[in-house]
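Hypothesis: this fold can be encoded by more than one sequence.
Test: take the structure tokens below, design a sequence, compare later.
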């Protein structure tokens, strides 16, 4: 049950009260987090597209926020997805659930699954309430990850980047209502 909660960042990590805002990072409460995440370094003119609480049954798991240039997500990088955890989760379980969700998006070879799982096990730590993991999809197709404002790793694999963020943003996501919130439509 906890594994389902994790990735359903994992959506199967990322619905209570939802809202969207067009504040720039230079304004408001997100300015400190934006600096720590370095979102604007990779996503020019980053603004919030949508935000939502991902819950599993009665448990809030994480708040997800999607940022894109001018607050417009066009199904292409650059963009950033920030997850703020509301409960403790094991990093290994987050990585395993991520692979499961990536496989649901389409064909993932066993070689890629093993390689990507190992990479994510190194990237994702055990998280506690209040911890923040930010994933950034860059224009050149790489993924950059920050954990509590500190760079965790960078993966230069455009296929990984697509599959990873599709967990939340693809029409094939296992959590379409959460996707709608991230896209500012729910």
């Amino acid at each position: 049950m906890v594994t389902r909660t994790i990735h359903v960042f994992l959506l199967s990590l990322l619905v209570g009260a939802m809202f969207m805002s067009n504040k720039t990072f230079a304004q408001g409460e997100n300015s400190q987090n934006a600096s720590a995440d370095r979102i604007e370094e990779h996503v020019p003119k980053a603004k919030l597209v949508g935000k939502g609480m991902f819950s599993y049954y009665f448990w809030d798991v994480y708040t997800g926020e999607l940022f894109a240039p001018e607050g417009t997500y066009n199904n292409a990088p650059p963009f950033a997805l920030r997850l703020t955890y509301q409960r403790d989760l094991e990093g290994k379980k987050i990585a395993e659930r991520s692979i499961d969700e990536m496989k649901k998006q389409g064909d993932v070879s066993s070689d890629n699954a093993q390689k990507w799982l190992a990479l994510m096990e190194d990237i994702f730590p055990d998280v506690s309430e209040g911890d923040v993991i930010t994933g950034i999809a860059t224009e050149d197709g790489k993924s950059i990850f920050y954990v509590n404002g500190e760079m965790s790793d960078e993966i230069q694999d455009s296929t990984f980047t697509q599959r990873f963020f599709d967990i939340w943003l693809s029409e094939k996501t296992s959590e379409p209502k959460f996707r709608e919130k991230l896209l500012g439509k729910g």
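The helical segments are 2-7, 31-37, 39-42, 91-105, 110-123, 158-169, 176-182. The longest helix spans residues 91-105.
Hypothesis status: open.
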